[in-house]
Amino acid sequence: MTGGAGAKAPGIEFRLMDAEDLERIMELEDELFGEDAWPRSAFEAELFQPETREYWVGEVREDPDGGGRGEVAAYGGVMCVPPVADIQTIGVARSFQGRGAGRRLLEILIDAARRRAAEDILLEVREDNARARDLYTRRGFREIHVRKRYYRGGQDAVIMQLDLSEEDA
Ligand SMILES: CC(C)(COP(=O)(O)OP(=O)(O)OC[C@H]1O[C@@H](n2cnc3c(N)ncnc32)[C@H](O)[C@@H]1OP(=O)(O)O)[C@@H](O)C(=O)NCCC(=O)NCCS
């Protein structure tokens, strides 16, 4: 499976994540999430449940026509137990941010949720993460709740929802 149509993310190709990606994902978790980073075991558990989880990576190849793997620069995953899906995580390497990869990845995860019969998509985002909140709001997510002191450092989580049945009507 390869990424379908979405926002432009020049130079990045999307494919499903597998266990070989985890070493690089751990570096990116540390870079992007610091104290909120997931341990490797969390990703292993997610990859072990493909019936309800779907994880994608965006990789950059020095030679786009060459074989083998490129460097993973973006990743994200969705859990779907119909009729509800949850965006579990989404991240783009700092050096690749601002080029449309996050938007493209979000669209891939929304497509996955829709394909898996979700009617609603939920996600949690740190209250102080304006950039991510903007990305979700522009895509149609609405803020429906705040979970106080949800994150380790005491920050609140904003719960956002995208109503797919409304969108598909
Ligand atoms: C949030 C994140 C995934 C966005 O990824 P990205 O690849 O930088 O996002 P994109 O380039 O697709 O940009 C998304 C939007 O932000 C805008 N944007 C890009 N660079 C920006 C910048 N420096 N400042 C503000 N907005 C910016 C873009 O214009 C785009 O808007 P559009 O959808 O109207 O075109 C990325 O910043 C990230 O990984 N952050 C750290 C981890 C994180 O917070 N994850 C989310 C946890 S809930």
Write the layout of secondary structure elements.
Layout: E1 12-16, H1 22-33, H2 40-47, E2 53-60, E3 71-81, E4 84-92, H3 101-115, E5 120-126, H4 130-138, E6 142-147, E7 157-163, H5 164-168
The structure holds coenzyme A.
Residues 32, 90-92, 97-103, 125, 129, 131-132, 134-135, 138 line the site of coenzyme A (COA).
Based on Cα principal axes, name the global outline.
globular
- Characterize the main sheet: 7 strands, mixed
The amount of helix comes to 25-40%
- How many domains in all? 1
Say which CATH homologous superfamily is assigned. Gcn5-related N-acetyltransferase (GNAT)
Radius of gyration from CA coordinates = 15 Å
Question: Regarding CATH, which class?
Answer: Alpha Beta
**Bound heterogens, unique:** coenzyme A
SSE arrangement, N to C: EHHEEEHEHEEH
Judged by helices, strands and strand pairing, the structural class is alpha+beta
Low-confidence stretches: 4-8
How far apart lie the N and C ends? 27 Å
How does CATH name the architecture? 3-Layer(aba) Sandwich
| Average of per-residue pLDDT values | 92
Number of strands: 7
**CATH topology assignment:** Aminopeptidase
Number of helices: 5
Strand order of the largest sheet: 1-2-3-4-5-7-6
Question: Which key phrases capture this entry?
Answer:
5 helices; binds coenzyme A; alpha+beta; globular; 31% strand; Aminopeptidase; 169 residues; 29% helix
Provide an overview of this structure.
This protein is of the alpha+beta class. The chain has a single domain (12-168), classed as Aminopeptidase (3-Layer(aba) Sandwich), CATH 3.40.630.30. Helices cover 29% and strands 31% of the residues. It has helices at residues 22-33, 40-47, 101-115, 130-138, 164-168, and strands spanning 12-16, 53-60, 71-81, 84-92, 120-126, 142-147, 157-163. The radius of gyration is 15 Å and the shape is globular. The structure holds coenzyme A (COA).
